[in-house]
Structures are given as C-alpha cells and as structure tokens.
Amino acid sequence: MKRIVLAGIATGVLADAIACMASAYGHADSKASPIYGVKIPPGYRDWQLISVNHLAGNKLKQVRAQLGNEIAVKAFREGKLPFPDGAIIAALHWNETSSDENNEVLATGFPGAGFQSFVAGPAENIQFMVKDSGKYAATGGWGFADFKDGKPASEAVHKTCFSCHEPAKDRDFVFTHYAR
Amino acid sequence: MKRIVLAGIATGVLADAIACMASAYGHADSKASPIYGVKIPPGYRDWQLISVNHLAGNKLKQVRAQLGNEIAVKAFREGKLPFPDGAIIAALHWNETSSDENNEVLATGFPGAGFQSFVAGPAENIQFMVKDSGKYAATGGWGFADFKDGKPASEAVHKTCFSCHEPAKDRDFVFTHYAR
C-alpha cells in the first residue's frame, strides 16, 4: 500500500520505490505504462536539466534530477503555462550514497566543519509526464509513467499519479520549478 | 581563509561560497577567471547531465548538478581517461531550500513518515573545468574557474583549485562519476 501511494507522488519531486533507467544512455524500452501507455522516450538521458533536488526521511534518501525535452524546457524557461502538447518531463531518482572520497577531501579542507557529500548511487526509478491535452484530458492533459529497470510499475501504482499531482493544478500539475 | 579553501574544492563535488550563473540561459560573461583565463562557456546550461549530489554541513546546504559539453559527456559515458582536450565540466551549485509545497503532499501521502523535500533555491556559484593538456600542463591539464553572478572569484581562490583536485589524480582529477 505504501509502495502504491509513493509511486503516485510523481515527477521530479516526490518518491516511490519503483522503476528506472533502461541503460546508461536511456534507450527506449518496448513496454508502456499501464493506463497511460507511455513508453520510455528514446534519448531522454540527453535532455536538458530542469532542476535537482533531494528527498530524505524514513529509509528513503535520494538525489534527483528532472530533465525536459526541448518543448518542456522552453516552456519552463519562458514560464509558459499550461505546458504545450509534446512536452515531456523526466524525473531521474537515484538512491544517494555518502561519498567517502569527497568527505575525506572536505575534512582536509575544512577540519571540524562536518561537511558531508552525498552522491548518486544506484538508480531507483525514472518517471515521465507526457503532455497530450487530448489524449490525457481526464488527467490534466498529462500521461504518467513510472519505470524501474526498464519495466513499468503496476496499474495500481499508476492510478495514484494524477491525484498526487492535483495540488499543483495552478502550475499545470507540475511540481518542479526551473533552477536558474 | 575559509572561503578560499572552500573554493578550491572544485567541480561538481565539493563546495565554496562563491561565483554563479550569468543568466537563466548561461550566456557568457566577458570576464575570465584569474590564473586560468577561463570564461563562462556560452550555452553551458543546455549541456547534458553528468550527475547530481548534495552537500550538507555547517551552514552550507546545497543541491548540485554537474553538466558536461559533448566531449566531456562522451568521455564519461565511455569511461575514457584522461579526458580529451576540449572537455568542459560545469558544476552548478544552488543553495537548497525546503519545499513546503512538496512536504505537504508527502505528509498527505505518507503520514508520519517524515519525508522532507529539498529543492534548488538561489544559485550560489558555478565552476568549470576546461581540459587543455598543453595550456594547463602544470595543473593536470585542467583550467579552473569559479563564478558568482557572472563574476570570477579572486586569484587567491583560484590558487586552491588544483590542489583540492589532486586526490582524484587517478580519475584525471575529476571527482564526479557519471550517474547511470
């Protein structure tokens, strides 16, 4: 149950314990997400950066990046709402790991400061929001997807996506802000 | 003094309290970094993502992204060392801010879990490493730069860059690993 709720809290902001990167280069996977039929977009790992964040609490500790295709990034930069059809946002979630290597250098440079560096460890999941105002009219114009190791999460998981994004209705259901 | 040491711990891993983004789109600034003569590369904000991390301790709390130009990203993906001439790595550092908006959604989805979301707030600084094995032979083949609000940090700051990167000599002085 917890897993289901988690997965619904989707793109680029909140976390679940699901889905991920098909390969180092983000090649498409043939499987589509339940309900929405969203496949992993080819080349998403090459997209431009929207923002970064990290999530902490309980056993979940992640560093995260949101990437956008050209349409999405242009809209973010111009503050254009709603996002135009064709916009896709990718949220990449990595389990974070403390970097002993970095911490050692920090301790040398700043004795006693207690700096800690947390870097991207194993990928946990990747999520997508695809804007198609016609196809996804019932869910704010967005289709959702959640993948781990190239495989989509369950239908139950995907049923929770839109409800979690509803609080961001005034920003076209997108939580992430562009990092300037 | 602290500020100087901090700035030396450069690209994409460790932090200082200096330098930054010339504009939302990363346009070049006319000023070059002391010692190395590195200017802000036009279009760096469009580059591809290498990895993300966050840094905590003392009063410093940052979320961070490392971007690379095509040459750098290709080398990262192929595990090619040393990095070829022309590779440029950009480290973007934002002071992190707790997201009340995200936390509210998390609290609803996971009552009692104590999840906390930290997102990119105001930009703190941006740093660059530029590979030119001839020009920068004395510093591992890398030229360094640290900018805040488009202005380069002091010469004293830039004198610390290479020494802090020396522990990563076996990875061509680059701390960041590519996030897959």
From TrEMBL, chains A, B:
Species classification: Bacteria, Pseudomonadati, Pseudomonadota, Alphaproteobacteria, Hyphomicrobiales
InterPro entries: Cytochrome_P460, Cytochrome_P460_sp
Domain of life: Bacteria
Record-linked Pfam families: Cytochrome_P460
Domain Cytochrome P460 residue range list: 41-176
Ranges that cross the membrane: none
Protein name per the record: Cytochrome P460 domain-containing protein
Gene3D superfamilies, per database record: Cytochrome P460 (3.50.70.20)
Protein's organism: Bradyrhizobium ivorense
